[in-house]
Specification:
232 residues, Rossmann fold, 5 strands, 7 helices, 13% strand, alpha/beta
């Protein structure tokens, strides 16, 4: 199993970023059996995005991530852990293009301009778990700029939502929180069944898929492809 960690906005500004090889989080992951990819990857810049509807940094980051997975990993054996808007970058990379073993999003903002991709992410992963905290105000602030401010924290289309009290935005990727809450089981356990909760995931088709990736770069779901108007 290959593990990929994707940072959120300004994630690389910390002295010891959690998603870098050699961090406490990565050391714990490797101690438990996680495999690195053969080479490190070019990461997205982590700049603030989504304010004026361009979302260019997320698109470029998704292209980097797509290219990296296709050329260095087996998608069906890949687990992605993404913090904050790193989950938005993952959406740019995998939706409609590949299927990974598992996806775990940590405090990823629920935005109107990315709702179609979020709906498609359930198809792009065998198991998608979204973890959020009522104490995480940065998740809500990350929704500003799409023309709609919402208090929603749950991902409607995720296979599983986990609500945990008392954790800040940064706490969601702390080794302490992962050990205490047993989240490593989401990485190393069997993929969760794609159970559709009552009243959720309406209006999205979920057919079986055998392909793990397609030989073409990501197609942004917004106006570039017409998906912003719902033309999937």
């Amino acid at each position: 199993m290959t593990l990929i960690a994707v940072a959120g906005t300004h994630g690389g500004r910390h002295e010891k970023p959690w998603f870098h090889w050699g961090s406490d989080w990565w050391n714990e992951a490797e101690r438990r059996g996680a495999q690195r990819a053969a080479v490190d990857r070019r990461r997205w810049g982590g700049e603030i995005d989504g304010i004026f509807g361009e979302n260019e940094n997320w698109i470029i980051g998704g292209e980097y991530l797509w290219d990296f997975i296709v050329h260095s990993c087996n998608p069906s054996e890949t687990v992605i852990v993404a913090h904050s808007h790193g989950g938005t970058v993952v959406g740019e990379a995998i939706c409609g293009k590949m299927k990974v073993k598992a996806l775990i999003t940590l405090g990823t903002p629920v935005r109107r301009d990315t709702r179609l991709a979020l709906g498609m992410m359930a198809e792009a992963a065998e198991a998608w778990t979204h973890i959020y905290s009522p104490s995480d105000w940065w998740q809500l602030l990350g929704g500003i700029g799409d023309g709609h401010f919402s208090l929603r924290r749950k991902m409607r289309h995720a296979h599983r939502n986990i609500r945990v009290k008392g954790l800040s935005h940064a706490d969601l990727h702390s080794v302490k929180a992962w050990k205490k809450n047993g989240w490593w089981d989401l990485v190393f356990g069997e993929a969760a069944p794609a159970v559709i909760p009552d009243g959720e995931r309406k209006g999205i088709g979920y057919g079986p898929r055998s392909d793990h990736y397609l030989a073409s770069p990501p197609c942004p779901w917004r106006w570039r492809s017409g998906c912003r108007q719902g033309n999937l």
